[in-house]
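Practice problem 4.
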């Protein structure tokens, strides 16, 4: 295999994907030259254009809805689907054919993420993709486009031969990370994973050049506040010093929080629908979904740099009984800040908790959106549980398309300052962020850092991981055997390292169906490998349950020790090692039952 010519950062976003690249062997003494790969894509029937971003939407139309020839790409005359601008825009008119938010579905433990379930709610018989397949479709488009335009004259420049860094939310657990790697592999790529907030910080360092060390000081605690299309992601980066050199360490990450631009688009849609209803134009459920998607596109235009003051939102008619023709209305920039600022970034106390309103006993299946849309209340809880000695940040770096709005950044700073109770300097905003493109750019910079060409943020596992263990006690009628949780991978365990839980033996049941329960915590930062938690249900979050049958004599219990590998690509592998040398891998992907010889 040829040596990589480029380091390629791919931001596989919920709403938009971005690709950036830089030379794998840059000239010494020169700042890294980070370039964007402008992704060619369909922007209309049969029309191809290059854009800085590739909307992460997959359209699965029938030939009656979009002619087959209208989907043709320079590298595929009959792709059968569309990815990008045309998929997003035509999908607003065909919501039952549009796959969106695939990345959010990758971390939804309540569904089979390898099953063809998207578009969610599409009628029977419609073509569907799994969340993994939808993510693969976006990455496959990137791969094919790169190979066509970057490697046409030199096969060694094909994307599969480059050093590819793929970003994921900091809150993605081990299963979601494994599935992301699976999607990349299906697209023909070998990747390393990087947390998106860290990528944004790397981009800020590269943008600041040698000045970055003057903009932060030893003792600073930097909050990376990332609100994207589908998620809100928080990370804390501590600035320290070792042997006279400034160091950076990611010391805390938040829980996976499904509240972001999608929620805000829906809020705008409801607000517009209310205005239309007052004018006698009532929308049905199909039109509301189309309005939701239209508000997403309009919001992005309005929040763009030098964006207009208003954008037209169009909803197709649904017959004379409701609306005879197409409905058009204006979405003003002022409405965006009004609906979003107070609804999603409300002032609150530093001890605030996200609200948990009573829920209906029966609900539709779908994404597990946060019950409380107040991002600032989730932030308050995150900072209290961060484990940092001084949990209030001294500086904040904003990221994500939502945070383009100056009014939203100002509100977050106001809330953070109010939590100081007048003690200390106001929180500083680290300027120079590129809200849409920084994650991809930062991923390319991280690739240089791995090679020793840039400062590196110390990170490691974003959670502490545990396995459920059943107690060896006499059976009691009507009572299940007590269980405890044993830490198998501590928070911050570095990628590319392994650990053994020595001095402790467990009994592994083989030869019959068994269940393994995996759990995690983002707040128990001090637990070492082997720490046991007796009452864990209130402290730990379930990650997955693996149901499998390991090879061996039926009903046998063999003594094993535990080993864990935090892989270079950012995933986790847990092994049970028997005295006779047999090794059993407990896969975190619940849908792929596996035991290794």
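Answer key:
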């Amino acid at each position: 295999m040829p040596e990589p010519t480029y380091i390629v950062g791919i931001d596989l976003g919920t709403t938009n994907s971005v690709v950036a690249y830089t030379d794998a062997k840059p000239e010494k003494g020169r700042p890294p030259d980070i370039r964007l790969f402008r992704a060619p894509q369909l922007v209309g029937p049969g029309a191809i254009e290059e854009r800085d971003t590739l909307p992460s939407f997959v359209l699965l139309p029938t030939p009656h809805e979009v002619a087959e020839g209208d989907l043709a790409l320079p590298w595929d005359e009959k792709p059968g689907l569309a990815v990008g601008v045309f998929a997003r825009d035509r999908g607003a008119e065909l919501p039952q054919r549009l796959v969106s938010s695939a990345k959010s579905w990758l971390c939804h433990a309540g569904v089979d993420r390898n099953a063809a379930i998207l578009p969610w709610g599409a009628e029977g018989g419609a073509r569907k993709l799994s969340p993994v397949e939808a993510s693969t479709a976006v990455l496959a488009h990137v791969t094919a486009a790169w190979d066509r335009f970057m490697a046409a004259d030199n096969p060694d420049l094909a994307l599969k031969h480059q050093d590819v860094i793929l970003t994921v939310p900091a809150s993605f657990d081990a299963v979601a990370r494994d599935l992301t790697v699976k999607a990349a592999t299906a697209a023909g790529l070998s990747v390393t994973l990087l947390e998106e907030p860290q990528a944004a910080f790397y981009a800020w360092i590269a943008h600041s050049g040698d000045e970055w060390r003057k903009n932060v000081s030893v003792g600073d605690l930097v909050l990376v506040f990332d609100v994207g299309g589908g998620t809100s992601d928080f990370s804390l980066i501590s600035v320290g010093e070792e042997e006279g050199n400034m160091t950076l360490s990611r010391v805390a990450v938040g829980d996976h929080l499904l509240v972001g631009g999608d929620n805000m688009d829906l809020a705008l849609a409801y607000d517009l629908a209310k205005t239309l209803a007052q004018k006698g134009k009532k929308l049905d459920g199909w039109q509301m979904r189309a309005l939701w998607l239209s508000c997403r596109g309009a919001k992005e235009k309005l929040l763009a740099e030098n964006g207009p003051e208003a954008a037209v939102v169009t909803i197709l008619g649904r017959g004379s009984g409701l609306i005879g023709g197409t409905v058009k209305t204006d979405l003003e920039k002022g409405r965006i800040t009004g609906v979003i600022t107070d609804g999603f970034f409300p002032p609150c106390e530093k001890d605030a908790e996200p609200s948990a309103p009573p829920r209906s006993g029966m609900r539709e299946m779908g994404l597990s959106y946060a019950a409380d849309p107040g991002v600032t209340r989730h932030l308050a809880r995150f900072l209290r549980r961060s484990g940092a000695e001084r949990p209030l940040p001294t500086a904040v770096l904003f990221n994500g398309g939502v945070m383009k709005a100056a009014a939203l950044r100002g509100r977050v700073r106001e809330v953070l300052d109010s939590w100081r109770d007048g003690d200390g300097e106001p929180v500083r905003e680290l300027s120079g962020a590129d809200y849409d493109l920084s994650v991809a750019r930062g991923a390319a910079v991280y690739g240089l850092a791995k090679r020793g060409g840039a400062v590196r943020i110390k990170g490691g596992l974003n959670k502490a991981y545990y396995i459920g263990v059943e107690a060896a006690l006499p059976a009691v009628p009507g009572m299940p055997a007590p269980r405890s949780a044993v830490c198998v991978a501590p928070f911050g365990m570095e990628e590319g390292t392994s650990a053994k839980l020595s001095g402790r033996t467990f009994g592994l049941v083989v030869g019959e169906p068994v269940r393994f329960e995996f759990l995690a915590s983002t707040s128990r930062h001090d637990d070492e490998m082997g720490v046991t938690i007796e009452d864990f249900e209130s402290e730990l979050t379930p990650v997955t349950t693996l149901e499998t049958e390991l090879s061996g004599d039926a009903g046998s219990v063999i003594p094993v020790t535990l080993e864990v590998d935090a892989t270079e690509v950012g995933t986790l592998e847990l092994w049970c090692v028997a005295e006779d040398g047999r090794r059993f891998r407990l896969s975190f992907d619940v849908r792929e039952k596996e035991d290794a010889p």
